[in-house]
Write a structure and sequence with these properties.
Length: about 160
């Protein structure tokens, strides 16, 4: 059997595409799908992020948006998982581009203050995209294994 192309003047039985219809679906249904996820993310952020081992709860202050090449700092408030004072802590920090797994222009530093305030300085992304700040926490007595908590950042040009 030989393939015979259809003549150009024969129209398909399928109706013509209506791109405006997809726009209507996106405008009407988009917020309905997006709001639930945003509300869940907002609730999780307000409650704080629990560390990998479940011992610590951490809240990010200052927002998850940065600019390329602009040094920034953020404060992370650390409490016990139940909301109590964490006592003595030690902390270290990593800041990596999530798609390319490289760091920023300088290595960030973490300074632990009173009441579980951890100030992360020198957050300086080398390119736009998604970045992840990972804080490694250790109790002062080092009686438990170190635990990690991560926050995602959007870096704009």
């Amino acid at each position: 059997m030989q393939y015979a192309p259809r003549p150009c003047n024969v129209r398909s039985q399928r109706p013509a595409a209506r791109p405006w219809a997809w726009l209507l679906v996106a405008v009407v249904a988009g917020p309905a799908f997006g709001c639930a996820a945003d509300a869940a993310d907002d609730a999780a952020t307000a409650a704080g992020v629990v560390s990998s081992g479940g011992s610590w709860r951490t809240k990010l202050e200052g927002g998850p948006t940065l600019q390329v090449g602009v040094a920034a700092s953020r404060t992370l408030r650390v409490t016990t998982a139940s909301g109590g004072d964490p006592g003595a802590l030690s902390a270290s920090v990593d800041f990596l581009h999530t798609a390319m797994n490289h760091g920023g222009l300088v290595d960030p530093t973490a300074t632990v203050g009173a009441g579980g305030a951890v100030v992360v300085s020198d957050l300086q992304a080398s390119m736009e995209g998604s970045w992840r700040l990972t804080l490694t926490l250790q109790d002062g007595a080092k009686s438990k294994p170190a635990e990690k908590v991560s926050f995602d950042f959007a870096v704009n040009p």
